[in-house]
Amino acid sequence: MTNKNIETNNETTDNKVEQIIENKEARIEILNNTATTEIELEKQADDVVIGKKDLNTKITKKNVFEVLNAEGGSNRAVVDRSIARKLRYAANKKRPKDEFIDMKNSENAIIEVKNVSKYYLSGNIVTRVLKNVSLTINKGEFVMIFGKSGGGKSTLLNLISGLDRPSCGHVVVCDKNLPYLSDLKLTLFRREHVSFIFQNYNLLQNLNGYDNVETGSYLQKDKNKKLDIHQLFTDFDMDDVKNKLPSQMSGGQQQRISILRALAKNAELIFADEPTGALDEKTSEIVLSYLYEINKKYGITIVMVTHDPEIEPIADKVFFVKNGKIDKIKYNKNPIHPKQLKTSEY
Q1: Cα 143 off chain centre by
Q2: What is the pLDDT of residues 17-48, one digit of tens each?
Q3: For a 10 Å CB count at each end of the chain, is N or C smaller?
């Protein structure tokens, strides 16, 4: 097919799209060169939340996500190529300086999320995963983010931990407005303030238990904050795996080592993404007990993602995420120890 024919086909497709939307008396325009049939075009037109005629004059590389968020009623959009280019440019850039760059946390708060939305771009399809989310987490709280798969809970965790950037809104953590930080400063922020616990452990296979935990301590540059690693193993009854390689440990033992590694860093925040997802019930109870006791003994703020509703009573606060929004918030005035879960009538 010649270039001339391709251009003709694209023009025909564009004309069909405009005609379809005009017939629907919609105010939004879609230009999608990948759709080839009228049925496909009509189906995609139903999902459109942003177009060209009435918005393009307002859209720049700096404000494209804000305009999309303000105009969008759907969680999915098909955008024209010029807007897609601006979205790609803006997606992973630090926010330009404005009056919010020095925003600090409110008193007692360590994490504040304000009107945050998150979009992902694939080709010229834009999907909104979070919409206008706001929440506050106070210092020393044990918090759970609960929801079904695909609801946006892991995306939210990535945003508040500095692993990803929001498309709109503010994420203020430890007095830093994260969207305004460069990639280097985000890395330094995570190194200084954050520890992670992952579902797949992420242990170094050539190091024994003690040395894996010690890697967390290396990241703590303040000598006054360094913890006695030998004492940690003793306190949490883990001396028997101190000299074992990860390949010689059970899944539960590896997860407990990853928790001690996070604790050894002695950061203000620990983020845990489904830490019990691959563990049996008994081992999960042990791991949750570790997290609970770390929170109570050391006052470290813990934010944990889970899809298990039975463990909600151990947290101070539970955010229920549904379809990219905070559906409800549950406060536990008297959180219980994980060992009490089976006997509790909560």
Answers
A1: 14
A2: 444 444 433 333 333 333 333 334 334 433 33
A3: N
Residue 183 tokens read as 């990639």
Reported as a single tens digit per residue, the pLDDT across 68-114 is 676 655 677 777 777 777 777 777 788 888 888 999 999 999 999 99
Bridge partners of residue 126, in order along the sequence: 77, 121
Tokens of 241: 């795996």
What's the CA gap between 19 and 254, in Å, rounded? 60
Q: What is the CA radius of gyration of the chain?
A: 24
| Contact criterion met (CB below 8 Å) for 325 and 132 | yes
State yes or no: pLDDT of 275 exceeds 70: yes
What integer pLDDT is reported at residue 175 of this predicted model?
97
* Closest by CA position to 168, among listed 95, 78, 101, 82: 95
Domains of the chain: 3-91 (no CATH), 109-117+130-340 (3.40.50.300)
Tell me the C-alpha distance between 341 and 283, whole Å. Answer: 14
Cβ-proximal residues to 6 (8 Å cutoff; 6+ apart), any chain: none
Instruction: Please state, in angstroms and rounded to a whole number, the distance separating the CA atoms of residues 153 and 304.
Output: 10
